[in-house]
Specification:
With about 625 residues, the chain is an all-alpha fold. The protein has 2 domains: about 350 residues, no CATH class; about 120 residues. The protein has a 5-stranded mixed β-sheet, covered by helices on one side. A two-stranded parallel sheet has the order 1-2. Strand 3, helix 22 and strand 4 form a beta-alpha-beta unit. The chain starts with 6 loop residues before the first helix and ends in a 6-residue tail after the last strand.
């Protein structure tokens, strides 16, 4: 049964979307860029070869470790609006914004308009999603595609059409080409949603899902397969791979190695909070390592994936969403109730009731499996970044929206008890997260008390009917959401004020060092093809962004030699490379993976000329004239 959007729904979702846009756009210039991906965007904008392969440096010798689909959007953005920190983030910002109305549309079809709006609000203010959408990474685009796939699956359940299901599979395949195996978090839930919800005999559903699976695999592997059509010597070496193959980078470096914690990661200063965490700066808090794998990892008080940014909404989603979904299974065939518990607006035919029953069963199965998959995976994944949880943030927001809309209904005392208990637990949890009674906590407490009062006043027969109608469900829902989302919204404001990003700083040179280095290299190139030889493939990304010139890569991840000493000698003799930038040192006890200990770096230090002082650099033995290059 399809219901057209009413005027109030259009107005409400428009306001929520505008709010989501504000959270993702305000002070966006304060958010630091990501030199690693930005270098690739700059390089990809210089040639079609670089564009297709996702080349990291303008010479096209190495490529990023993922398919470049998201970076294609960034290239289009900078081509249209010019290269800047803001234009590089526009695709992610837009994806974070558009995911809000998309989730509203999906949840509205599953559970009704009130649940859809509540879910949209929950996603709009979810801090981990806001921060990711403001960051120069591809996770927000991936998440928006997953939400679109969810909407298409729901549409397939409504219509029974195979075309909608195949469309969803194709969208999920594109999402894989954006962020690889991170998208797999949503697959079991969407599969359960489709299998349980699509009408027809089991055999027909299996055939439909098999066809959808084939479409998913074809689309997901399309770019990786297309790379094999080019001759091997024309394909850049995929950073992170052990053999140069994009397939190896996709399924080993970004797959099994990530799950097992083997993929090398850039090191940064770790902040140990001790007994002074409340007084720590935002930067120090974001450098606290994510809690080690455990069942309560996603509810941690501190770190870049703290309860303020995800755990509070996740806890509320479980406490309210699980009972709502279970109730939906039991009450699926009640003709007198709409999806949110309100009186149905139109006569319920047998077909309508059956469709409603299927949708309720599918919603419970799909969101339940999706949420459980995310919790288990991210609780026990060895190496976790906050942005990775974008694979299941839509499920968290949908569960919270459905649960809040269900609990705000005045029908039955059980809902009132569950909502009361949930709000009180959230008040206690918020106090622990905030290390005391801050302004956000007082809003959480007062809104919770007001919601609880409204819940029980709306159930008292002595209260006038008109007042009861005002209190529930609208008044209760607004107050409950205010209580549940006060802390997340406060975390958003803090993150925006401090320019928090979930992107990395791989390859970011100090601004003065970069200025001096670029100026000296420009003045002393003498026609060399390569601006400089880099000790590591990723150490000078910000220089690539600024100058857009080819870089001779000496090593890739793990200290693996990419340019051998004989190759370097030949290029120097031909005048193609004159200088090398070696900004780390090889000590007696250095790891074998230390790029400074590689053969080409050792050879340059042993036979080259240190020109660091000539360039004005404060640190000696970092910029070298390559042996064999003319003075």
């Amino acid at each position: 049964m399809r219901r057209p959007l009413r005027q109030w729904e259009w107005a409400a979702i428009a306001l929520v979307t505008i709010g989501a846009a504000a959270l993702r756009l305000v002070y966006i210039g304060r958010v630091s860029p990501d030199p690693f991906y930005d270098a690739a965007v700059r390089s990809m904008s210089l040639s079609w070869h670089n564009f297709f392969f996702g080349a990291f440096e303008p010479g096209g010798s190495v490529s990023i470790d993922k398919p470049p689909v998201d970076l294609w959007l960034q290239v289009v953005s900078v081509k249209l609006f010019g290269l800047s920190s803001t234009t590089l983030k526009l695709p992610e910002i837009f994806a974070g914004i558009v995911s809000v109305p998309l989730l509203f549309a999906a949840v509205r079809k599953m559970w009704g308009p009130t649940a859809g709006l509540s879910a949209a609000v929950a996603l709009a203010v979810l801090p981990v999603e806001v921060i990711t959408s403001r960051s120069d990474t591809m996770d927000a685009v991936m998440m928006a595609l997953i939400v679109l796939a969810l909407l298409l699956v729901v549409r397939a359940i409504e219509s029974g059409s195979t075309a909608w299901l195949l469309g969803s599979a194709a969208v999920l395949g594109v999402a894989f080409d954006v962020k690889l195996l991170e998208t797999v978090v949503a697959l079991p839930g969407l599969l359960a949603l489709a299998y349980v919800g699509i009408p027809g005999e089991r055999r027909r559903r299996v055939l439909q899902l098999t066809a959808a699976g084939a479409v998913y695999v074809v689309v997901a592997l399309s770019w990786l397969t297309a790379t094999l059509l080019a001759p091997a010597h024309d394909r850049p070496w995929a950073i992170g791979s052990t053999n140069g193959s994009a397939w190896n980078a996709a399924f080993v470096f970004n797959g099994t190695d990530r799950l097992g914690g083997k993929s090398p990661e850039p090191q940064f200063t770790v902040y140990e909070p001790g007994h002074h965490y409340p007084e720590a700066t935002q930067s120090e808090r974001d450098h606290i390592p994510i809690t080690p794998p455990s069942p309560t990892r996603l509810l941690a008080r501190i770190g870049p994936l703290s309860g303020e940014r995800l755990g509070l909404e996740l806890l509320a989603a479980l406490l309210l969403g699980v009972p709502a979904l279970l109730w939906g299974l039991r009450a699926a065939r009640r003709p007198s109730e709409g999806p949110d518990g309100e009186t149905a607006e139109m006569d319920a035919t047998a077909a309508t009731l059956e469709q409603r029953a299927r949708m309720r069963r599918a919603t419970a199965a799909g969101l339940g499996v999706w949420t459980l998959t995310g919790i288990v995976l991210f609780s026990y994944m060895s190496r976790l970044h906050p942005r990775y949880v974008e694979g299941f943030t839509p499920a968290v927001a949908a569960m919270l929206g459905i649960g809040a809309a269900w609990a705000a209904s005045p029908r039955g005392r059980a809902r009132g008890v569950i909502l009361t208990a949930t709000l009180l637990l959230i008040v206690v949890y918020a106090e622990r997260l905030l290390y005391g009674t801050t302004g956000a906590w007082w809003v959480t407490l007062l809104a919770a008390l007001a919601a609880i009062a409204c819940v029980w006043l709306a159930r008292m027969a002595t209260v006038p009917a008109r007042l009861r109608a005002l209190l529930a469900p609208g008044g209760v829902l607004v107050l409950a959401l205010a209580s549940l989302l006060a802390v997340p919204l406060s975390a958003d404001v803090t993150a925006i004020k401090n320019g928090v990003t979930d992107a990395g700083y791989v390859g970011a040179l100090p601004s003065e060092t970069q200025r001096l280095l670029s100026s000296y290299l420009r003045a002393h190139q003498k026609g060399a093809r390569y601006e400089v030889a880099a000790q590591s493939a990723t150490q000078i990304g910000s220089l690539i962004v600024q100058d857009g010139r080819p870089i001779l890569v000496l090593t890739t991840y793990g200290g693996r030699v990419f340019t051998t000493v004989p190759q370097l000698q030949r290029l120097a003799a031909q005048g193609q490379v004159r200088y090398a930038y070696l900004n780390t040192f090889c000590g007696r006890h250095s790891s074998a993976q230390n790029t400074a200990c590689s053969a080409p770096a050792r050879w340059i230090r042993a036979h080259g000329t240190d020109v660091s002082r000539d360039a004005g650099l404060s640190k000696a033995k970092t910029l070298w004239r390559v042996p064999g290059a003319a003075p």
